[in-house]
Amino acid sequence: MANNDEKQQIDANVKDAELNEKPTPGSTDNRLLWIAIAILLVLLIAAGGWLYQQIMAQQQQQIDAHSALQSEMAVLADADDDTRQRLATLQQDQQGLADKIEDLLNREALSSADLKRTWALQEIKYLLNVANQRALLAHDVTGALQALQMADLQIKALSDYRLHPLRALIAEEVMALQALADVDTAGIALKLQTAANNIAKLRVKKGPEVTAASENESGVVPEQAGWKQAAADIWQQLRSLVVIRHDQSGEAAVLVPEQRYFLYQNLRLQLESARLALLNADNASYQHSMQTAIQWLRQYFTGDQRDALIATLENLNSAQIKVDVPDISGSLNWLEEYQQ
């Protein structure tokens, strides 16, 4: 009996367990609800991610469009600056053309008297320029005086009282030039040129020659025989090739014909150097070239032509060619300021 009761009790427990294991309708609905919620969350996350990607893509497109717009604006700004510069250049060109047209109109409006006066002032300015160039560059006092005097005559012909200060300046400059020593630059230059042209007529000094005497006073060569005769012949030939010249005065004036050409050319070069120094009013170079030429004439040449040339060069060497030309630019500066 006891075993049957235990068996019944076990069977009752098993049935209760089976009943407990069977799902209830309420628990099944809750599980489905959670599954739906999870699926919905996944869908929401996926949709949010997609929406985020779309927003970011739109923002990137907006950034690219903004950059392109800025680039286009920069290009437009450069084009605008270029256009403004071109407009400014055109305005300047137009202003220049307007000034030229106005200048032409003003020139046409000038009367014949004004034209003559303007032309005369230009001639006066040219003469004053010539005077300054002749005085300061060429050291031509005579030419500068002539140019100043011609300019003064032109001013006098205008009869314009406003130019009286200019005439006063020119008078002072003429007086300053007239006070200088009169140097005949052209005459000295011609004499130097003539002297250079006559150099070829000069004779070079020749010293006494000592030659080997191979004959006795009777003109008969002594007879020698054998090797002594041969040796004597060779010795005589060698002595015939040697010419001994003596100059007791110590002057090194004995030159072979090939060297005489260079002597003439060097002397001519000294005279040309003296002439160039004369034209440049370089007294030191002039004196040096003249003294060198005179020294060479005395040392290397002889004859009447040499003596006459030395006398001419010594006379020219005594001339004073250094002239301190005063500044005569005051009249030219006054006229330039007056025309402005």
Spatial order of the strands forming the largest sheet: 1-4
What share of residues are in beta strands? under 5%
Order of H and E elements: HHHHHHEEHEHHEHH
Spans of 5+ residues with little confidence (pLDDT < 50)? 207-225, 241-253
Classify the helix fraction into a percent range: over 70%
Mean pLDDT over the residues:
77
Radius of gyration: 60 Å
Q: How would you name the oligomeric state of the polypeptide chains in this document?
A: single chain
Which outline best applies? elongated
Q: The biggest beta sheet, please?
A: 2 strands, antiparallel
Calculate the terminal CA-CA distance, rounded to whole Å: 156 Å
Structural class: mainly alpha
Q: What is the number of E strands?
A: 4
Q: Note the total helix count.
A: 11
Report on the structure:
The chain has helices spanning 2-21, 25-109, 112-136, 141-158, 164-178, 185-197, 226-240, 257-279, 283-300, 304-317, 330-339; strands spanning 203-204, 209-210, 244-245, 301-302. With 340 residues, it is mainly alpha-helical. Among the domains are: 112-180 and 328-339; 185-207 and 230-317, no CATH class. Residues 207-225 and 241-253 have low confidence and may be disordered.
Key words describing this protein structure:
340 residues, two-stranded antiparallel ribbon, elongated
Q: How are the elements arranged and paired?
A:
Blueprint: H1 2-21, H2 25-109, H3 112-136, H4 141-158, H5 164-178, H6 185-197, E1 203-204, E2 209-210, H7 226-240, E3 244-245, H8 257-279, H9 283-300, E4 301-302, H10 304-317, H11 330-339
